[in-house]
Amino acid sequence: MKTMKALVKAKPEKGLWMQEVKIPEPGLNDVIIKVKKSAICGTDLHIYEWDSWSQKTIKTPMIIGHEYMGYIEKMGAGVTNLKIGERVTGEGHLACGHCRNCRRGKEHVCENTVGIGVHIDGSFAEYVKVPATNVIPLDHRIPDEWAAIMDPFGNATHTALSFPLLGEDVVITGSGLIGSMAVAIAKFAGARFIVASDLSDARLEIAKKMGASLTINPSKGQTLADARKTLGIRGFDIGLEMSGSPKAFVDMLHNMYNGSCVSLLGILPSNFEVPWSDIIFKAITLKGIYGREMWETWYKMEQMIIGGIDLNPVITHRFPIDDFQKGFDEMEKGNCGKVILNWD
């Protein structure tokens, strides 16, 4: 039996374990990808920490991870649109193809979605098995490290481009990796002013590098109302909620302009009091965001990268895969950008 190294959630407790496991074999319409670079996602951190969501969702033992790039090593006999040796990444949500949403072109809200590295073995391994329909060939102008983070870049793209941004004033609550990438997308898409908020000065520095017009740290008494006054605007046209913080969300709503739009990616707790009067009397449109639109988001991501958007500032740490623990330690501290793990 041929084996490979893989990061396995081996036990229902905090931690990950490097193990030797069997190399997967492709089914008829599957592709085996030899992984070159992985990236740590916030979801991976939840699984590592074994929080309440993980305990309800993850079945151990399982290989986790879903952000990666690599090269096609093997293909099933039914795969005709790809080539051995092709440089690729993959969409991590597997759609069923036959539910109502899939059949009307809304695979990103498939009612039977399966997540790589969440429901089935993932990409923190030397090799990962992916359905050919989920494989994304990479343009030669997309660097390897950027290719490994196209999954979260897609979250940012889906969130930011859900509403027209040209000439608009944008507020982003939560300037982690995805929030900071959304800053760059908003700037690329022609937003006028972009205000980013976070409790971490380190993350706000990344947001500035990504093109934020102004950053605020509420823990230092800085407010969105002050930002509006500085910029001379009556309210924000587009809100991108990335923090999952009720306080940040409520403050955002108070500072939105009448008739504005808000995309919600951060997972807010269900037991807080939503200021519905702000939403209703300001006629605010809310849109919940899940994953990436398949496949429109991927086309937009590729064109932004080819068109000159810069993702380098969000990548702050790089480790060999054998030092994966250092990467998760940095993620736990919470002041890093994206952490890349190298398999080569």
Question: Could you characterize the architecture of this molecule?
Answer:
The chain folds into 2 domains: 179 residues, Quinone Oxidoreductase, Chain A, domain 1 (Alpha-Beta Complex); 133 residues, Rossmann fold (3-Layer(aba) Sandwich). 29% of the residues lie in helices and 26% in strands. The model has no long low-confidence stretch (mean pLDDT 95).
CATH topology of the largest domain: Quinone Oxidoreductase, Chain A, domain 1
Domains, number:
2
Q: Beta-strand level of the residues, as a percent range?
A: 25-35%
CATH architecture of the largest domain: Alpha-Beta Complex
Structural class: alpha/beta
Keywords:
12 helices, globular, 18 strands, six-stranded parallel β-sheet, 344 residues, seven-stranded mixed β-sheet, alpha/beta, Quinone Oxidoreductase, Chain A, domain 1, Rossmann fold
How is this fold's topology laid out?
Layout: E1 3-9, E2 17-22, E3 30-39, H1 42-49, H2 52-57, E4 62-63, E5 67-75, E6 87-90, E7 93-94, H3 100-103, E8 114-115, E9 127-131, E10 135-137, H4 144-148, H5 150-160, E11 170-173, H6 177-188, E12 194-197, H7 201-209, E13 214-216, H8 224-231, E14 236-241, H9 246-254, E15 256-264, H10 276-281, E16 285-288, H11 296-306, E17 315-320, H12 324-333, E18 338-342
Parallel strand pairs: 11-12, 11-14, 12-13, 14-15, 15-16, 17-18
Antiparallel strand pairs: 1-2, 1-4, 3-5, 3-9, 3-18, 5-6, 6-10, 7-8
Helix pairs in contact: 5-6, 5-11, 6-7
